[in-house]
Amino acid sequence: MIRTDNVPPSVFLIDFGLAQRFRNPATYLHLHKPYSKDHSIIGTLLFTSIYGQQGYVQSRRDDLESLAYTIIFSARGDLPWASVFTSESIETVLRKKKLITVEELCKGLPAPFCKFVEYVRSLDFDEKPDYKYLHSILSQCSETETDQHREVLPCQLINNMDSTPISSDRV
C-alpha cells in the first residue's frame, strides 16, 4: 500500500494471509513453534528465506530475510536468482541464495544495507531480533545518497516505519 498524502509517499508492506499467532493475547507469552523440518515452502519462492526454502519451520529471522529480499527487489527490480527460477529447479534457486555473497546481493544499495542482511542471516531460530538496531541500519541507508542519482530508495520509505506492535485477535 502507498500513502500519497505526504511527501515522500509512505509505503506499507502488508500481507497477513500466512500470519500465525506469536503471542498469547492474554498473557503475552510466546507461542513460538518448535524448531523442526519437513515443512512446505510458505510464500513466494523468490522471497522465501533460505531456511524456509529448506523446509524448516519459519520464525522472525525468516520474516526479516524475506523483508530484505523485498527491499532489494523494490530497489533493483529483480533478485539474483530470479532468472534461474524461471528456467531451472527450486534447488538451483536455493543454491544461488546460499552461495551469493552479501556484497553481491546488496549491490547497488546503500552500503549499510549489507549489515542488515548479515545480521538477519546470523540470527538463531528463536532469537529475538534487535529491531532498534535494524531500524538504525535502515535509517543509515535513507541518509546515504547514491553517486548516480538522488531518488527515494526503499530504505528511505521504511525509515519512517512505526515500530508500534500490531495487536489483533487474528495475528
Explain what you see.
There is one protein chain. With 171 residues, the protein is mostly helical. The protein has one domain (37-159): Transferase(Phosphotransferase), domain 1, CATH 1.10.510. The protein has eight helices and two strands, in the order ββαααααααα. The chain has helices spanning 50-53, 60-76, 82-87, 90-99, 102-105, 113-122, 131-143, 154-159, and strands spanning 2-3, 10-11. It has a two-stranded antiparallel ribbon. A hairpin with a 6-residue loop joins β1 (2-3) and β2 (10-11). The two termini are 19 Å apart. Residues 146-152 and 155-171 have low confidence and may be disordered.
Summary, kept brief:
With 171 residues, the protein is mostly helical.
**Largest sheet composition:** 2 strands, antiparallel
> Which percent range fits the helix content?
40-55%
Counting DSSP E segments of at least 2 residues, the number of strands comes to: 2
Strand order of the largest sheet: 1-2
Let me know the CATH homologous superfamily: Transferase(Phosphotransferase) domain 1
Strand content: under 5%
Order of helix and strand elements from N to C terminus: EEHHHHHHHH
| Structural domain count | 1
Which overall shape is indicated by the principal axes computed on the Cα atoms? globular
Per CATH, the architecture is Orthogonal Bundle
> Roughly how many Å is the radius of gyration?
17 Å
